[in-house]
Protein backbone atom coordinates (compact mmCIF):
# COMPACT_ATOMS: atom_id res chain seq x y z
CA UNK A 1 0.00 0.00 0.00
CA UNK A 2 1.59 3.24 -1.08
CA UNK A 3 1.14 6.36 0.98
CA UNK A 4 -0.12 8.35 -2.00
CA UNK A 5 -3.19 6.13 -2.32
CA UNK A 6 -3.97 6.59 1.37
CA UNK A 7 -3.64 10.34 1.09
CA UNK A 8 -5.85 10.44 -1.99
CA UNK A 9 -8.43 8.28 -0.30
CA UNK A 10 -8.44 10.40 2.84
CA UNK A 11 -9.73 13.43 0.96
CA UNK A 12 -13.54 13.62 0.87
CA UNK A 13 -15.16 13.04 -2.52
CA UNK A 14 -15.89 16.05 -4.69
CA UNK A 15 -19.68 15.68 -4.73
CA UNK A 16 -19.86 16.40 -0.98
CA UNK A 17 -19.86 20.15 -0.31
CA UNK A 18 -17.25 21.30 2.10
CA UNK A 19 -18.19 22.83 5.41
CA UNK A 20 -15.83 24.54 7.81
CA UNK A 21 -15.89 22.81 11.17
CA UNK A 22 -16.95 25.01 14.03
CA UNK A 23 -13.74 24.48 16.00
CA UNK A 24 -15.13 26.04 19.17
CA UNK A 25 -13.91 24.48 22.40
CA UNK A 26 -16.04 23.15 25.22
CA UNK A 27 -16.20 26.33 27.33
CA UNK A 28 -17.68 28.63 24.67
CA UNK A 29 -19.91 25.81 23.47
CA UNK A 30 -21.31 25.32 26.96
CA UNK A 31 -21.79 29.06 27.30
CA UNK A 32 -23.64 29.23 23.97
CA UNK A 33 -25.49 25.90 24.31
CA UNK A 34 -28.95 27.26 25.09
CA UNK A 35 -28.68 29.93 22.39
CA UNK A 36 -27.61 27.31 19.86
CA UNK A 37 -30.62 25.29 20.98
CA UNK A 38 -32.91 28.27 20.49
CA UNK A 39 -31.39 29.65 17.28
CA UNK A 40 -30.84 26.32 15.46
CA UNK A 41 -33.89 24.47 16.73
CA UNK A 42 -35.25 23.56 13.29
CA UNK A 43 -31.95 22.33 11.91
CA UNK A 44 -31.12 20.39 15.06
CA UNK A 45 -34.49 18.68 15.16
CA UNK A 46 -34.32 17.93 11.45
CA UNK A 47 -30.90 16.35 11.91
CA UNK A 48 -31.93 14.27 14.92
CA UNK A 49 -35.06 13.04 13.11
CA UNK A 50 -32.79 12.03 10.22
CA UNK A 51 -30.49 10.24 12.65
CA UNK A 52 -33.49 8.41 14.06
CA UNK A 53 -34.07 7.01 10.56
CA UNK A 54 -30.58 5.59 10.32
CA UNK A 55 -27.43 5.82 12.40
CA UNK A 56 -25.29 5.55 9.29
CA UNK A 57 -22.80 8.49 9.27
CA UNK A 58 -23.39 8.93 5.55
CA UNK A 59 -27.16 9.20 5.89
CA UNK A 60 -27.49 12.71 7.32
CA UNK A 61 -24.52 14.60 5.86
CA UNK A 62 -26.69 17.32 4.32
CA UNK A 63 -28.62 17.93 7.54
CA UNK A 64 -25.38 17.83 9.50
CA UNK A 65 -23.83 20.53 7.32
CA UNK A 66 -26.87 22.73 7.97
CA UNK A 67 -26.49 22.18 11.72
CA UNK A 68 -22.83 23.18 11.63
CA UNK A 69 -23.44 26.21 9.42
CA UNK A 70 -26.22 27.40 11.73
CA UNK A 71 -24.03 27.01 14.82
CA UNK A 72 -21.16 28.84 13.12
CA UNK A 73 -23.59 31.60 12.16
CA UNK A 74 -24.77 31.92 15.76
CA UNK A 75 -21.28 31.99 17.25
CA UNK A 76 -20.28 34.68 14.74
CA UNK A 77 -23.32 36.77 15.62
CA UNK A 78 -22.70 36.26 19.32
CA UNK A 79 -19.12 37.46 18.92
CA UNK A 80 -20.24 40.46 16.88
CA UNK A 81 -22.91 41.57 19.32
CA UNK A 82 -22.01 40.35 22.82
CA UNK A 83 -18.30 39.66 22.67
CA UNK A 84 -17.38 41.04 26.11
CA UNK A 85 -20.18 39.26 27.97
CA UNK A 86 -19.60 36.03 26.03
CA UNK A 87 -15.90 35.97 26.80
CA UNK A 88 -16.48 36.83 30.45
CA UNK A 89 -18.97 33.98 30.80
CA UNK A 90 -17.03 31.25 29.07
CA UNK A 91 -13.86 32.37 30.80
CA UNK A 92 -15.65 31.94 34.10
CA UNK A 93 -16.94 28.51 33.04
CA UNK A 94 -13.42 27.43 32.21
CA UNK A 95 -12.25 28.52 35.65
CA UNK A 96 -15.15 26.86 37.46
CA UNK A 97 -15.29 23.30 36.18
CA UNK A 98 -17.91 24.36 33.60
CA UNK A 99 -20.59 24.64 36.25
CA UNK A 100 -23.31 27.15 35.37
CA UNK A 101 -24.32 27.89 38.96
CA UNK A 102 -20.92 29.34 39.77
CA UNK A 103 -21.07 31.84 36.90
CA UNK A 104 -24.50 33.45 37.29
CA UNK A 105 -22.98 36.92 37.72
CA UNK A 106 -21.37 36.60 34.28
CA UNK A 107 -24.32 34.78 32.78
CA UNK A 108 -26.98 37.42 33.50
CA UNK A 109 -25.38 40.21 31.39
CA UNK A 110 -24.87 37.70 28.56
CA UNK A 111 -28.52 36.61 28.69
CA UNK A 112 -29.80 40.20 28.66
CA UNK A 113 -27.42 41.12 25.84
CA UNK A 114 -28.49 38.12 23.76
CA UNK A 115 -32.13 38.99 24.31
CA UNK A 116 -31.69 42.66 23.43
CA UNK A 117 -29.44 42.19 20.40
CA UNK A 118 -30.56 38.85 18.94
CA UNK A 119 -33.88 38.18 20.67
CA UNK A 120 -32.75 34.82 22.00
CA UNK A 121 -33.95 33.69 25.41
CA UNK A 122 -32.45 30.95 27.54
CA UNK A 123 -35.27 28.54 28.36
CA UNK A 124 -34.69 25.29 30.24
CA UNK A 125 -37.39 22.84 29.17
CA UNK A 126 -39.23 20.99 31.89
CA UNK A 127 -39.08 23.62 34.64
CA UNK A 128 -42.05 23.01 36.99
CA UNK A 129 -45.09 25.16 36.29
CA UNK A 130 -45.14 28.52 38.09
CA UNK A 131 -41.55 28.17 39.26
CA UNK A 132 -38.67 30.47 38.35
CA UNK A 133 -36.04 28.89 36.17
CA UNK A 134 -32.87 28.03 38.04
CA UNK A 135 -30.74 30.62 36.24
CA UNK A 136 -33.22 33.40 37.11
CA UNK A 137 -33.26 32.82 40.88
CA UNK A 138 -31.20 35.54 42.55
CA UNK A 139 -30.68 34.13 46.04
CA UNK A 140 -30.13 30.42 45.65
CA UNK A 141 -29.57 27.87 48.41
CA UNK A 142 -26.64 26.34 46.55
CA UNK A 143 -23.92 28.88 46.08
CA UNK A 144 -20.26 28.68 45.36
CA UNK A 145 -18.39 28.09 48.61
CA UNK A 146 -15.41 30.29 47.79
CA UNK A 147 -16.33 33.90 47.27
CA UNK B 1 -10.26 27.44 140.11
CA UNK B 2 -12.33 29.59 137.85
CA UNK B 3 -14.54 28.24 135.05
CA UNK B 4 -15.45 29.91 131.76
CA UNK B 5 -18.78 28.63 130.45
CA UNK B 6 -19.10 28.08 126.68
CA UNK B 7 -21.86 30.38 125.55
CA UNK B 8 -23.36 31.53 122.21
CA UNK B 9 -21.65 34.54 120.67
CA UNK B 10 -22.86 37.96 121.48
CA UNK B 11 -26.12 38.64 119.65
CA UNK B 12 -26.89 34.91 119.31
CA UNK B 13 -26.28 32.42 116.54
CA UNK B 14 -27.29 33.43 112.99
CA UNK B 15 -30.46 31.76 111.76
CA UNK B 16 -30.22 28.38 110.05
CA UNK B 17 -30.28 28.61 106.21
CA UNK B 18 -32.97 26.14 105.36
CA UNK B 19 -34.31 27.80 102.14
CA UNK B 20 -33.45 26.25 98.74
CA UNK B 21 -30.44 27.94 97.19
CA UNK B 22 -29.96 26.47 93.67
CA UNK B 23 -27.98 28.32 90.99
CA UNK B 24 -29.62 29.09 87.61
CA UNK B 25 -29.61 25.87 85.49
CA UNK B 26 -30.23 27.30 82.04
CA UNK B 27 -33.37 27.10 79.90
CA UNK B 28 -36.00 24.51 80.60
CA UNK B 29 -36.45 21.18 78.92
CA UNK B 30 -39.30 22.34 76.68
CA UNK B 31 -37.32 25.34 75.51
CA UNK B 32 -34.35 23.13 74.58
CA UNK B 33 -36.61 20.63 72.83
CA UNK B 34 -38.36 23.41 70.98
CA UNK B 35 -35.07 25.07 70.02
CA UNK B 36 -33.49 21.89 68.74
CA UNK B 37 -36.63 21.06 66.78
CA UNK B 38 -36.62 24.52 65.22
CA UNK B 39 -32.96 24.27 64.20
CA UNK B 40 -33.53 20.79 62.75
CA UNK B 41 -36.61 21.92 60.89
CA UNK B 42 -34.70 24.83 59.34
CA UNK B 43 -31.83 22.52 58.38
CA UNK B 44 -34.11 20.00 56.73
CA UNK B 45 -35.90 22.77 54.89
CA UNK B 46 -32.54 23.99 53.56
CA UNK B 47 -31.63 20.45 52.50
CA UNK B 48 -34.96 20.15 50.73
CA UNK B 49 -34.63 23.43 48.86
CA UNK B 50 -31.03 22.53 48.01
CA UNK B 51 -32.17 19.19 46.60
CA UNK B 52 -34.78 20.93 44.46
CA UNK B 53 -32.13 23.31 43.16
CA UNK B 54 -29.66 20.52 42.52
CA UNK B 55 -32.30 18.75 40.45
CA UNK B 56 -32.87 21.92 38.43
CA UNK B 57 -29.12 22.41 37.93
CA UNK B 58 -28.80 18.85 36.72
CA UNK B 59 -31.57 19.38 34.20
CA UNK B 60 -29.91 22.60 33.07
CA UNK B 61 -26.61 20.82 32.32
CA UNK B 62 -28.48 17.94 30.66
CA UNK B 63 -30.30 20.31 28.33
CA UNK B 64 -27.11 22.19 27.56
CA UNK B 65 -25.68 18.88 26.35
CA UNK B 66 -28.86 17.99 24.46
CA UNK B 67 -28.65 21.29 22.57
CA UNK B 68 -25.05 20.49 21.59
CA UNK B 69 -25.58 16.86 20.57
CA UNK B 70 -26.60 17.54 16.92
CA UNK B 71 -23.59 19.77 16.38
CA UNK B 72 -21.10 17.29 17.83
CA UNK B 73 -22.76 14.32 16.16
CA UNK B 74 -22.70 16.04 12.76
CA UNK B 75 -19.00 16.74 13.07
CA UNK B 76 -18.28 13.17 14.17
CA UNK B 77 -20.40 11.79 11.33
CA UNK B 78 -18.41 13.67 8.71
CA UNK B 79 -15.18 12.34 10.16
CA UNK B 80 -16.56 8.79 10.34
CA UNK B 81 -17.85 9.01 6.77
CA UNK B 82 -14.50 10.18 5.42
CA UNK B 83 -12.74 7.48 7.42
CA UNK B 84 -15.11 4.88 5.98
CA UNK B 85 -14.32 5.99 2.44
CA UNK B 86 -10.60 5.89 3.17
CA UNK B 87 -10.80 2.41 4.66
CA UNK B 88 -12.94 1.19 1.75
CA UNK B 89 -10.40 2.50 -0.77
CA UNK B 90 -7.55 0.74 1.04
CA UNK B 91 -9.56 -2.47 1.27
CA UNK B 92 -10.44 -2.33 -2.43
CA UNK B 93 -6.77 -1.86 -3.25
CA UNK B 94 -5.73 -4.82 -1.11
CA UNK B 95 -8.49 -7.13 -2.38
CA UNK B 96 -8.39 -6.07 -6.04
CA UNK B 97 -7.43 -9.59 -7.16
CA UNK B 98 -10.38 -11.25 -5.38
CA UNK B 99 -13.33 -11.49 -7.71
CA UNK B 100 -16.70 -10.23 -6.43
CA UNK B 101 -15.25 -8.66 -3.31
CA UNK B 102 -17.29 -5.76 -1.96
CA UNK B 103 -15.25 -3.44 0.28
CA UNK B 104 -16.71 -2.71 3.72
CA UNK B 105 -19.54 -5.19 3.19
CA UNK B 106 -21.64 -5.85 6.25
CA UNK B 107 -21.28 -9.34 7.69
CA UNK B 108 -25.03 -9.40 8.32
CA UNK B 109 -27.61 -9.57 5.58
CA UNK B 110 -29.43 -6.61 7.06
CA UNK B 111 -29.46 -2.97 5.93
CA UNK B 112 -29.43 -1.63 9.50
CA UNK B 113 -26.24 0.33 10.21
CA UNK B 114 -23.80 -1.06 12.74
CA UNK B 115 -20.84 0.97 13.85
CA UNK B 116 -17.55 -0.79 13.08
CA UNK B 117 -16.39 -0.66 16.70
CA UNK B 118 -19.48 -2.62 17.74
CA UNK B 119 -18.45 -5.63 15.70
Distance between the termini of chain A: 60 Å
Please give the number of β-strands of chain A.
0
- List low-pLDDT spans of chain B: none
Report the principal-axis shape of chain B: rod-shaped
Q: How large a portion of the residues of chain A is in β-strands, by DSSP E?
A: under 5%
The largest sheet of chain A is: none
Total of helices of chain B:
1
How far apart the termini of chain B lie comes to 129 Å
Rounded to an integer in angstroms, the radius of gyration calculated over CA atoms of chain A is: 19 Å
Uncertain ranges of chain A: 1-7
- What class, by secondary structure content of chain A? mainly alpha
- Percent strand of chain B equals under 5%
Order of helices and strands of chain A: HHHHHH
| Residues in helix, % of chain A | 55-70%
Helix proportion of chain B: 55-70%
Question: What sequence of helices (H) and strands (E) makes up the elements of chain B?
Answer: H
Subcellular location (chain B): Mitochondrion inner membrane
Function (chain B): Complex I functions in the transfer of electrons from NADH to the respiratory chain. Accessory subunit of the mitochondrial membrane respiratory chain NADH dehydrogenase (Complex I), that is believed not to be involved in catalysis.
Main location (chain B): mitochondrion
Organism (chain B): Mycena albidolilacea
